[in-house]
C-alpha cells in the first residue's frame, strides 16, 4: 500500500509539479485514510468501495473535523483513486458521485501554438540527446499522453507507417492514438539513427532510454523539460502536463468534439474533459463575432 502512495506522491511532484505544502497535505490525508481502512480490516486499496469512503467521511465528522477538512480529505482520496484508475491499478473509482462542497475548478495552464513551437525547437537536433528529447516533446503534444505513459512506451507500441501509438497497453486504459507527421518524422529519425547510441542491452525494448541504457523515468523527463523551459523564459509555469493540456485545448479550438478528445486523453468521465471547453470559449466568441452576420 505504501508503494502506491509513494507512486502517487511522485506523480504529484514530477508530473503535476505540486508544491511541497500540497504534497504534504495529500500525504497526510491519504496516510490517515490508509490507517482508517487498515483498522477496518482492509489491507488493499483495491478492496475499497463507495461504502468504505462514506463511512470514512462520517468517521471524520464524528471526531470533530471541520466540513472544509472533510471536503479536502475526500478531494485527496478522489485524486488518489483517479490516479490509480488512470494507471490501470483499479477498475473503478469508488469516489464517483460522492458529493463535496462545490468549488470552481482552476483552469489548467496552456501554451499557445507559437509557444509550443518555441519549446519544441529547443533541443539540439545535431545530437542524439536532442533528437531523443525532441521526439519525446513532439509525442507528448501530438498524442496528449501523460508522462507516465510516455516513458512506459516500448518500440512495438509505435506504428510509424500507420501513424498510431498504443498507449497503456494491457491496462483498462489502453487506447490507440493517432500522431501527426512532425512526430512521425522525428521518431523515425530517432529510431533509425539515434536510439542505438543509448542502447547498452538489446533486450530492453523501451522506446526512450537514458545514458545508462535504461528506460527513461518520469523524474528524468521532468529534469529535461525544466532545462528547456528555462531557455525560453516564458512567464508561465510549464510542467510536463502542460503539453497534454495544450493538446486538448488546441484540438477543441480547431473543431474536435469533446467525446473524441476524451477518448484520446483516456478520461473515464467526460466532465474531466469539459474543463478544456471553458478555456476555448473566448476564442469561439471571437470567431462568432467576426463571422456571424448578426453578431
Structure, described:
- The chain is built from twelve helices and three strands.
- With 295 residues, it is mainly α.
- The protein folds into two domains: 2-86, Orthogonal Bundle (DNA polymerase, domain 1), CATH 1.10.150; 113-283, hpI Integrase, Chain A, CATH 1.10.443.10.
Task: Detail the topology: elements first, then pairings.
Blueprint: H1 2-14, H2 20-39, H3 50-62, H4 67-86, H5 113-120, H6 128-143, H7 147-152, E1 158-159, E2 164-167, E3 175-178, H8 181-194, H9 218-232, H10 240-253, H11 258-265, H12 270-291
Antiparallel strand pairs: 1-2, 2-3
Task: List key phrases describing it.
DNA polymerase, domain 1; mainly alpha; globular; 295 residues; single chain; 3 strands; 2 domains; hpI Integrase, Chain A; 57% helix; three-stranded antiparallel beta sheet
